[in-house]
Design goal:
The chain is α+β, with helices and mostly antiparallel strands and 301 residues long. It has a single domain, classed as Alpha-Beta Complex (paralog of FGE (formylglycine-generating enzyme)). Helix content is 25%, strand content 13%. It contains 8 helices and 9 strands. A 4-stranded mixed sheet has the order 7-6-5-8. A 3-stranded antiparallel sheet has the order 1-4-9, covered by helices on one side. The two termini are 37 Å apart.
Length: 301
């Protein structure tokens, strides 16, 4: 029997926006209204392909008026409207949230600057997932394929409130199985760096310095993963979220000649800014899983 997750509603902030205004904007169905909605509520990627999903989600009570803004550490537990949507009793709303999380963006042909030396390397165009793979997306894969769930889940169900958090405790082999399931693959190390850094040698996706919380590292004080949709101010030049911090991300690139170890990129919530940059990497055996390792998917064009 298929099981779904729930969330515990937490009204932790005073209401500062009007739900009546939000519903009126959704119902007006004009470009100006969508732009205002995206500015006031929609803190993550928006494209025309998501219009129907966005309108459905924005017309639903998902805590929009109390959505926390991650600006002052320590942040405590964070539940986004997407997290509420993923646990909603209405299947259409759950599917709309998954559609938002499944989105990818074009990464054009270009020159990537790799590593501390910023060595130039020509990269062919590809597509990259906007977000790391979340618990809810991975649960869909587990339910459809019978794949073994991560060890931190209970009875095949991820922890309450964390549908929009990146999945962890997945091996590189697990990540590749998921990528095959969605007709994708893991990005290579150079592709990952290009998607994170853009066409220059910046240290972070947004530039060269930390000027405010733009990702989930130890300095944020969350003490765990955060929703992948949390940091609009931390996106890469190509529009990818969470490329630094939150979780290490597996790549397809082997670290050793025998291919027993893979490179992972980007740092994680457990590490500070010095170890969570566009050039940060580590390596783990293909069958290794840990509480700070996840992944995202790349696609051919």
């Amino acid at each position: 029997m298929e099981r779904t997750n729930s969330v515990t509603r937490k009204n932790i902030l005073n209401i500062t926006k009007s739900s009546t205004s939000r519903i009126a904007l959704v119902e007006s169905n004009t470009p100006d209204a969508i732009q205002k909605l995206c500015r006031d509520y929609w803190t993550w990627h928006f494209g025309e392909s998501l219009s129907d999903a966005a309108r459905l989600l924005l017309s639903t009570d998902l805590g929009w008026e109390t959505m926390p803004q991650l600006t002052t550490p320590p942040v405590g537990e964070v539940i986004s409207p997407i997290g509420y949507a993923l646990a909603h009793e209405d299947e259409d709303i759950r599917d709309a949230a998954l559609k938002v999380l499944d989105v990818s963006v074009d990464i054009p042909d270009g020159i990537a600057y790799i590593g501390e030396e910023s060595a130039p390397l020509e990269i062919d165009g590809f597509r990259m997932a906007v977000y790391p793979v979340t618990n809810a997306q991975y649960q869909r894969f587990v339910q459809d394929t019978g794949h073994t769930p991560p060890q931190d889940w209970t009875d095949g169900i991820y922890t309450e409130n964390r549908g929009d958090h990146p999945v962890v405790w997945v091996t590189c082999e697990d990540a590749e199985a998921y990528a095959n399931y969605v007709a994708g693959r893991l990005p290579t190390f150079p592709e990952w760096q290009y998607a994170a850094r853009g066409a220059d040698d910046r240290l972070f996706p947004w530039g060269y310095e930390i000027d405010k919380p733009r990702c989930n590292t130890a300095e944020l004080g969350a003490g765990t993963t955060t929703p992948v949709v949390s940091f609009r101010d931390g996106i890469s030049p190509f529009g990818c979220y969470d490329t630094v911090g939150n979780v290490w991300e597996w790549t397809a690139t082997p670290y050793d000649d025998d291919g027993n170890f893979r490179v992972a990129c980007g740092g994680a919530w457990y590490y500070n800014h010095d170890d969570s940059t566009c050039i940060s990497y580590d390596f783990f055996s293909n069958g290794y899983a840990e509480f700070v390792i996840g992944f995202r998917v790349a696609y051919e064009v």
